[in-house]
Amino acid sequence: MKKIALSMFVTALVTSVYADYDGVNIKLKHGITETPEVHVLSDDIKDMFLKGTTSGQIRMFYVDRQYQGGSGADTYRDATVLGGHLKYETATLNGIRLAAAFYTVQDLGVQQHTAQSPALLGTGYKSYSILGEGYLGYNFSEYGLKSDAKLGYQRYDSLMMGSDDARTLPNTFRAYKFVSKDVKNITVQIAHVDRIAYGTFANIYSAGGILAATSGYTSRGVNASTGVSTGEYLNLGLATTGKKTAGVTNIQLKYTAKNFHIDVSNDYAWNLYNTLYADAGVSWNCLLNSDVKPFVKVQMIKQNSVGKKYMQYSPLGGSGEVDSFYWAGKIGAKYEGFATYIAYSQASSNNAGDDAYKNAILTQFGGMPAYTQGMVTRHMFLAGTKATKVAAVYNFKQHGVNLSTAAYYCSFDTDANSGYGVARTATEAGFDIKYYPKAVEKLQLRFRGNFPRKFAETTPGSDTGWNEYRLIANYNF
What we know:
- This protein is mostly beta strands.
- The chain is built from four helices and 23 strands.
- Keywords: Signal.
């Protein structure tokens, strides 16, 4: 008789929430129906492999960007690639399962302009492949527990570390993770991560510096001279400072009820910095119209240097001292297929002469939970930045069409002591359209655009922005 074990470890849900966090996001972390993973039980090793499951995704991605602004940059670049992943996971035998996933991205050689976009391929504009996942999982259901462990190479998504799957291939990690849902409405995670293989988005930050370090990537930069390349696993300390560390130890607690949630997470990056993250949200039915559901969310991040303060060995130099604070709030409402919100955030400020990272929020391992981030602009974590974002989404499902449209506008008032250009107001407008055709099940077609202005400005008037369009097709199986 075929036996099914239901794991309450909702890896797939967590991935979906965090992997699409760039641009517009109106999802709450409460009131969501969680679909548990289903693991097929086997009676012996032969059955373990015969009853295994295969899954994956094929992704075709085209990007077109033209620079503009007072700096005179007018480069026109594009790229078209085909990539994705193929994963096999065995059935469960005595609680144990094995899995492996192969990721690849290949240049199609279709290019309109003289410059090629770097964010869709590997370092040096190269096609590449990687074993992105290779892990041993253990499910505790046979002991009556709603707990799960995953040990090895995997997609790891927590509040301040993540796959950041915004281009073609995600970041992947070597991690050891335990998740328990044995207490009603409470999820506890204990994890340790010691290696990262940066995905294709990392190539945008090839120059490194404070912009990269506050945008999810290494201050060393991803290029041939640093030895940090996409698709190659490196110790977390080596990847960010050139000094080996023990990695990052995470403890996370999440409470979820029908109309309320709270997340508290602590990442201890050994000999680098400790990051305490918390967010909470509440929603309710409007008294005047029960179909209107207002919501409020708040988040805070406190970061302090620890141990030997290895940031001093990064290209940013300095003392290695980090003592930063960031807070943000979001208020909005949902009505049938429509949702809108406004968000505000503020980071603590540097004094003249401070290291650029002292009051910045450092996130060098793909984590990007900020309410005020744009599709590409992530200046809200630079020291002293005050950011605002407004967004609106409309879903046409109630009209019989599986189509959603979104638009947003972000504004970033950067500080003179941020370490990234002059004080200015950088902006980004953008849109995101998703369509799921009925004729092809599990196919998503996506059209996105972003239009930053004054993204960079080293001296007054020498600003750089661009107009970018993306066409994406995702087929899941």
